[in-house]
Write a structure and sequence with these properties.
Blueprint lengths: L5 E6 L6 H12 L7 E6 L5 H7 L6 E4 L16 H6 L4 E4 L2 H7 L3 H13 L3 E6 L3 H5 L3 H12 L12 E4 L14 H19 L1 H4 L4 E4 L7 H5 L6 E4 L6 H12 L1
Parallel strand pairs: 1-2, 1-8, 2-3, 3-4, 4-5, 5-6, 6-7, 7-8
Bound molecules: ligand LAUYXW4J.
């Protein structure tokens, strides 16, 4: 899948119990997906298997919101790569700022998880982003370069094409977030692309999608998606209702 594809994804975060998730997945299964758009949905673990099975033959990828790097063991409360794979998931979200801020996720644990995901044939969706403080001190580019380099440390040349990245400024996420300016986003994505070129070479780096996330909504989604170095959007609140997700997909397709 090349960079001409527009990725549109949503994580339901800690929303929708098993019954509600099944209803939403059935509605997603009815959507007609425009060409060149690759939607994905990331439900909570409690409905991962059901959502995967409802969307199995549809052009909507399903992912987990996190996982451990070990394949089994005494890790109470954790879920392993083979467990995620067995549920039918195609991708796994790693390093979201809420995991980093509240659950001790670090660049190093993200790296372990990225390597484990690739080993088990899961596409890692790696979330990176600057905090408000880093943004204010104008070190965003350095932070993103560090996060990308550590997350991808040890990734083999042929594995880079399975990587998906999302730039999500921490200050842009959630109810208190403010959407980033389009010029700023384009600049950050250019810098991320440069880091990817350093790591994987120009040809491969061109094929790694880099999405934008953080207060994306129906109004701003097509503007972000149209930026030259942005390959789609990763949406929270605005895409939790299936109608909102559908509208954003359509806004990007047109
Ligand atoms: O956290 C994300 C964005 O959330 P918003 O509610 O859109 O600010 C991103 O990772 C998608 O879940």
């Amino acid at each position: 899948m090349g960079r001409r594809t527009a990725w549109v994804g949503t994580s339901w975060k800690m929303n929708k119990g098993p019954a509600e998730a099944v209803v939403a997945a059935r509605a997603l299964a009815e959507l007609s997906i425009p060409p060149h758009v690759q939607p994905f949905v990331v439900p909570p673990f409690t409905s991962l298997k059901d959502v995967c099975s409802i969307l199995r033959d549809k052009n909507i990828l399903v992912g987990a919101q996190n996982m451990h790097w070990e394949n089994e063991g005494a890790w109470t409360g954790e879920v392993s790569p083979p467990m995620v794979k067995e549920c039918g998931a195609a991708l796994v979200e790693l390093g979201h700022s809420e995991r980093r801020t509240y659950f001790g996720e670090t660049d190093q644990t993200v790296n372990l998880k990225v390597l484990a995901a690739l080993k088990y044939g899961l596409k890692p969706l790696i979330c990176i982003g600057d905090t408000q403080e880093e943004y204010a001190f104008n070190v965003t580019n350095e932070v993103l370069a560090r996060q990308v380099k550590i997350a991808l440390h040890g990734v083999k040349a042929h594995e880079f094409e399975n990587i998906l990245l999302a730039y999500e400024p921490v200050w842009a996420i959630g109810e208190k977030g403010r959407p980033a300016e389009a010029d700023f986003v384009q600049n950050c994505h250019e810098q991320v692309r440069q880091t990817l070129i350093e790591l994987a070479g120009e040809e491969t780096a061109e094929r790694i999608p880099v999405l934008y996330g953080g207060s994306v909504n129906l109004e701003n989604a097509p503007h972000y998606a149209a930026l030259p170095d942005v390959d789609g959007v990763f949406v929270g609140r605005a895409a939790w209702p299936v109608a909102g997700f559908k509208a954003i997909i359509e806004s990007i397709a047109t």
